Structure formats: structure tokens, C-alpha cells
Amino acid sequence: MNNNYDSSVDYFAVLGIHFGACEKTVKMMYRKMARRYHPDVSTIHDAQKKFQEIADAYDVLKKYREAYCRDYKRYQTSKKSTSNQTSTTHSYNQPKRSHSTTSSANSEESNHSSRAYRKLKPIDGKDRLITYPLTLRYAIRLLKLGSFYIPGLKVKMKFTREAFMGKTFKLEGKGYSGLFGGKSGDYLVRFNIKVDTLKYRLEEGDIYGTFTLPKSLYRPKKALKIECPSGCLNITVPNNYDSDEYIKVNDMGLPADKKHKAGDFYARLIYS
């Protein structure tokens, strides 16, 4: 017997799959069950023991699959042969069982594994929380588009001003898969919108920005173009402008959505 595994154990059944399942299925079920029973996240009382059994089963099927399958089948054949010999000895003086009875017994034995699998209690999958970092400029671009594309799921989700308020968006059934017929968890999305606090600040839908410009650009009553996260600003500097004042540019703050109107941009100009 190989010392690296126990040929009497059905390692496929440990992973909740039928004997001889393909490598892809083995790997998929190992990942699902490992996530479910990992001691760092699972609240099941025997999670650590179950996780170790799952890891051992996957290790055997990954490294010794061919030899293990051969030894397991030999073990089952030997076990069945021993069982038949014992049965023959005890039933020497007993009437023979009918063909239909034998067929029924064999059918019941062959379906034992599948019945046991079906009786396992469904386990719901866990929710998956992902936080996406965004620059202020990119977040405003997404707000104008009205959607955010999630590469891992290959789906689009709505992107609204609530993303700037720390809301957690939920995509039902897109989280970790359940086991044994359990429902999948949800995919939870949050956005960490990074604002250059030395230059900009957000107040609800309005953006306040501070720009340092050379004195040569100080031209009262003439249009001045400045780039900001929401686009190009056309600012007319008033006479006797004070650098502590803010010049308002309408509708150049956060773009509007169904619940909120467009914010304004307030520019403070410092000439040096």
C-alpha cells in the first residue's frame, strides 16, 4: 500500500464529487470547499478538521491520482470478494436469493454514494466584498457614463453619486458559490475615491479647488482655462480679485444623476 494515501478512503467523496471526476471538477470543488471551511473565515465548529481533510484529499488526487484510483478499485474488489465469501459461508444451508432480489441489492449499493450526497445539508455561499480604489477624475467619468464594469464578473453595475457617499452596492448571487445545493452569496462593491486633499475637497456635489498660477496669467475680465477633474474650466477673473475668494463655475462639480442635480465648481486662484 502506498504510504502517501489510504486506499480505503474515497477522496472524491470527501470533496463532494463522484469517483473518477475530471481534474477540472476536482480543482473547482476543492476551491469551493476550501473557501467554505478555511479556519480564518469559517464559523463551523470543526472547520479546521474538515479543511485538513479537504486539503489532504486534493493533495492525493493531484499528486497520486492514477496510483490511488488503481489501489482504491483493488481495495473495493478485495472487500467485495471477502464480503461475498463470508456471505456464501453463512448462507450455505440457506435458500438462494432470487435474481430480482440480488439486482435490487446491487442497485441499492451502487446508488449509496449518490443518496448520501443528496442528503448532505445545503450550505449557502458567503458574500464577497471588494473595494475598488478610484481617482476623483475617473470616478466623475464613471458617473457621466452611469456604470462601472467589473472585469472578474464581466458585468456592468450602476454607478451613482451614492458611490461618493460610501454606499455598498450589492449584486445578488454573484458571491461565493454554495455547496450541496446551497444558494450563492452576494457580490458587495464599495469604492474608495481618492481626492487630492492638497488641491481639492468635496462638499456634497460641489468641488472646491485651489490653483497656483504665475502672476503673468493674472488678467482681469479675460477668460482663463484651467483643467480640473470634471473637465476644462473657463474662468473670468474679476477686477481686484482676492486670492481668498472662490470663483463659481456652474454645473462643473459632480455630474447629476437621477437623485441629485449637478454640483458646482469653486476655484480659488493663487498668483505667485
SSE order and pairing:
Elements: H1 11-14, H2 23-37, H3 47-63, H4 65-90, H5 99-110, H6 112-119, E1 128-135, H7 136-145, E2 147-150, E3 155-158, E4 169-171, E5 187-194, E6 200-203, E7 206-213, E8 223-228, E9 231-236, E10 247-249, E11 265-271
Parallel strand pairs: 1-5, 7-11
Antiparallel strand pairs: 2-3, 4-5, 6-7, 8-9, 10-11
Helix pairs in contact: 2-3
How would you describe the overall organization of this protein?
- This protein is an alpha+beta fold.
- The chain folds into 3 domains: 11-119, Helix Hairpins; 128-194, Sandwich (HSP40/DNAj peptide-binding domain); 200-271, HSP40/DNAj peptide-binding domain, CATH 2.60.260.
- It has 7 helices and 11 strands.
- The protein has helices at 11-14, 23-37, 47-63, 65-90, 99-110, 112-119, 136-145, and strands spanning 128-135, 147-150, 155-158, 169-171, 187-194, 200-203, 206-213, 223-228, 231-236, 247-249, 265-271.
- A 4-stranded mixed β-sheet has the order 6-7-11-10, with no helix packed on it.
- α2 runs antiparallel to α3.
- The longest helix has 26 residues, at 65-90.
- It is rod-shaped and about 110 Å long.
- It starts with 10 loop residues before the first helix and ends with a strand.
